[in-house]
Write a structure and sequence with these properties.
The structure holds two protein chains of two kinds. By secondary structure, chain A is an alpha/beta fold. Chain A is built from 13 helices and 15 strands. In chain A, α4 packs parallel to α5 and α9 crosses α10. The longest helix of chain B has 15 residues. Chain B is α+β, with helices and mostly antiparallel strands. Chain B has five helices and three strands, in the order αβββαααα. Classes of the chains: A alpha/beta, B alpha+beta. Chains A and B meet through α11 of A and α1 of B.
Chain lengths: ~350, ~120
């Protein structure tokens, strides 16, 4: 049984009809669909258990604390962290990065440097630009070269005793490039810098081992206690726990293999269509589950609207990665991204629809 | 239908795309959310918009909107040309424009206003 045959029925939203056609959802990189198991866990939490955590001396308060802390343990195991105290629940990746940035800003001095890359999402760029402007520090960027990989020689040259932190995507949200984060973390640490990895595009797709990576902060859904003031997103933590259990049951190795196969099929099919340009590494082994592309003469927003008319949901635009768009010399791209529920037949529908785009306007 | 025949035709075969030698007024702007960029150049005489051309790098809706806008304002008094309501353009586009694409329609209007008000292009 293929992974999609096993999972598909768990995702009620995939039964939707859009513009008269069965939905083909190829925008999981922006937000992935949630299986019934996650939705039910969150609903059941609200119907049976909800109360504030760590302070309410009554049954529900104790139960809520219990499920919240159980989620922390599950996430620790899932990402390979050593200690449960290392797992902090935030309101999302962007919130997590902002917490680290605001904290680092307290000790940032004029002339200090923060090293980012040209392929960062604005979420992993703007917080650093803001604190550097406030403190008279400097943001520098590692260039993107070749098929869409980081210039490792330039990274070595840019690292200096002034580098306080390296902020880096584990997987590019546009190019799909999987960056050599273990090696880059080691080199950054040798230079005395902290390392923050943006795992938004990696966490639900790749088997993770953050202890082996050695990074100081790995931000995806979540990031010490002191950062969880007030009422934390408890139901979300419960949902995340259910998602971790779900993915574990499937097996992350199978998840990776399935998404990689879809990525390969999609690149092979799109590449053959006249007028189509692909962006990012061509070898599916080197990338996450996203394929960015353009169709000659068609603005990405028009392309996405025309695909939507056929029931196909893809992302279009600059993907909140404008420095990368400037480097590539384009205003934006179309982007198809895949998850455990996508099928080869859906890629075929995408490919057929893309073929029709060139003459469509 | 997002892409009406009007949009397709105006995108494929625009009537007023291009530039003017030594224009009396010109402005360009970009929608930072989608990257659409439009420039409009104008020839003005006796308080009237005698000629205008648009060019840029944009989606079909924005390009069609710019072409229709220029057609609508040619020969009009400058004040009138600078105050074309969005509803007029929407009617002429004959398309079901969703809220997410409304900026594509309105960017040319604000660019033309910028030109006619003599605003400086931001660098």
């Amino acid at each position: 049984m293929t992974l999609d045959e096993q999972t598909r029925a768990d995702f009620p939203i995939l039964r939707r009809i859009v513009h008269g056609q069965p939905l083909v959802y190829l925008d999981s990189a922006a937000s992935s669909q949630k299986p019934r198991q996650v939705l039910e866990a969150m609903q059941s939490y609200y119907e049976q258990t909800h109360a504030n955590v760590h302070r309410s001396i009554h049954t529900l308060g104790e139960e809520a604390t219990e499920v919240y802390e159980a989620a922390r343990d599950a996430v620790r195991v899932f990402i390979g962290a050593r200690f449960r105290e290392e797992i902090i629940f935030t309101r999302g990746t962007t919130d997590g990065i902002n917490i680290v940035a605001r904290t680092l800003a307290l000790t940032l001095e004029p002339g200090d440097e923060i090293l980012v890359t040209e392929m960062e999402h604005h979420s992993n760029l703007i917080p650093w630009q803001m604190i550097c402007r406030e403190r008279g520090a400097v943001v520098k960027a590692v260039p993107v070269v070749g098929e869409g990989v980081l210039d490792q020689d330039a990274f070595g040259r840019l690292l200096s005793p002034r580098t306080r932190l390296v902020a880096l995507a584990h997987v590019s949200n546009v190019l799909g490039t999987i960056n050599p984060v273990t090696d880059m973390t080691r080199r950054a640490h040798e230079a005395g810098a902290l390392v923050l990895l943006d795992g938004a595009q990696a966490a639900p797709h790749l088997a993770l081992d953050v202890a082996a990576m050695g990074c100081d902060f790995y931000v995806f859904y979540d990031l010490p206690w002191r950062f969880e003031p007030g009422t934390p997103p408890i139901a979300e933590a419960v949902g995340l726990h259910a998602a971790v259990v779900y993915l574990d049951k499937l097996g992350m190795a199978r998840v990776e293999a399935h998404e990689r196969a879809l990525c390969r099929i999609a690149m092979d099919a799109l590449e053959r269509i006249p007028g189509v340009t692909l962006y990012g590494p061509r070898n599916a082994e080197l990338k996450g589950a996203v394929v960015a592309f353009n169709v000659e003469g068609i603005h990405p927003h028009d392309g996405a609207a025309l695909l939507d008319e056929r029931g196909i949901g893809v992302r279009a635009g600059h993907h909140c990665a404008q420095p990368l768009m400037r480097r590539l010399g384009i205003v934006g791209t179309l982007r198809a991204s895949f998850s455990v529920y996508n099928t080869a037949a859906e890629i075929a529908r995408l490919s057929e629809a893309v073929q029709s785009l060139r003459g469509a306007l | 239908m997002v892409y009406s025949d009007v949009i397709r035709q105006r995108f494929r075969s625009p009537r007023y795309q291009g530039s003017l030698p030594a224009p009396d007024a010109a402005f360009e702007d970009v929608n930072p959310l989608c990257g659409d960029r439009i420039r409009i150049e104008c020839r003005i005489a006796d308080g009237r918009l005698m000629d205008a051309r648009h060019r840029g790098d944009s989606c079909a809706i924005c390009a069609a909107s710019a072409d229709l806008l220029v057609e609508l304002v040619l020969g009009k008094a400058v004040e009138e040309a600078a105050s074309v309501p969005v509803s007029t353009l929407l009617e002429r586009l004959e398309a079901d424009i969703r809220p997410t694409r409304m900026k594509c329609v309105t960017l040319p209007i604000s660019v033309l206003q910028g030109a006619l008000e003599g605003r400086e292009v931001a660098r």
